[in-house]
Amino acid sequence: MKEPVYEVFARKTREEPLRHIGYVNAMSGDLARVYAWTTYDEQNWIEMCVVPRSAILPVDPEESQFVHDTSVRDSEDELVHMTGTGSYGGGDVAVKEAP
Amino acid sequence: MSTALADAPAFEKAEQLPADLRAPLRDLVLALADSKRVLGLRYSDRMLGAPTLEAGIAASSMAQDEWGHGRLTYALLSDLGDDPKVLEHERPGAEYRSNPALDAGFGSWSDMIACNLLIDGALSAQYGALAESRYAPVRTRVQKLLDEERFHFQYAAGWARRIAGVEQLRGELFASFERYLVEAVRWLGRDEDAGVRRLVEEGVVREGPSAVRARFLGRVGPVLEEIGMAEALGVSRGADGWSYARELDWDGWDESTRRRGGGLDEETAARARGDRNRAMLLD
Predict the structure, then answer these.
(1) Which of A16, A82, B86, B113 satisfies CB 3.0 to 4.6 Å to B159 for a cystine?
(2) Residue A39: which of B57, B155, B162 has the nearest Cβ?
(3) Chain A residue with the nearest C-alpha to that of B53
(4) Edge-to-edge strands of the sheet including A5-11?
(5) Mean pLDDT score of chain B, rounded to an integer?
(6) Which CATH class is domain A2-56+72-95?
(7) Does B50 touch chain A (CB under 8 A)?
């Protein structure tokens, strides 16, 4: 099970266009919305949207940052087998060892 | 709320409340504040222990939200004759009225998500019953809190679906739901509680325990149903809405504390009080 990438777009006023501010990895659109809201909360955004990277069709793939999806993680493997020694602490879902 | 009550003047201050409403309102607000404070602590334990970085950041954000909600709720008690500073920083664990499900820390990520969905959800349902309160200090503060809670619910629902999709973890998740659900459902109380009935009669609380419970189950039931656990947990959808089929044990139930005894351990209470940083406490 791969954890998809969602690109995050936001704006601070109704007048300004949405701009790309980053991305999150998430298993669903719902989680992507929460992660975007909590990860990019340093600004007082009036609107924030997430878009699955897979839904973005670059007009010129050679020049686009959205084509090469190297940050997709195998989330189920992480969820079940993580050993708790990750750089940010790991977790106890991690205690589940591979059968 | 009846039309007559909706048109009735608001209670701008606690001194305008009928005298017999003050104690049950204080009980309710303190139980909410303590539960928020301890829930924030429990979330904070997972800031660095989440399965993914984004999940940890969100847990951190929720922990801060809960402490903010707790502080906001404690502040309401000054109008009811309490000193919020004493309530926040000077009580022993035995005096905390937090939901008993929060007495112990999370044993697993499934515990975290079950508590997020069910205990946080029950608190939100109870806050929701205050959103149109005739008691103005409560009404004016609740909506922002409920807006933030929408993200907490999305987080819990998203993670519940995700964990439930991993066969090895379904048993653990079910056990967590089973443990937290009974405490969530019971914490909302009984209709025969005279104090709560009076709060409803005067329009301070929109509806009584059974109605709040049904609203809570209407929120979490579809998630439990979607992941195939609702029926086994005793949660079902009927013609009159969602219900919880299992019998609740009310032995020892204290309406004022919303507990059946026990209490918060001193180590957790010390964290909730902020003992470590007491020297830097400002007025």
Answers:
(1) B113
(2) B57
(3) A88
(4) A19-25, A5-11, A47-52
(5) 95
(6) alpha beta
(7) yes
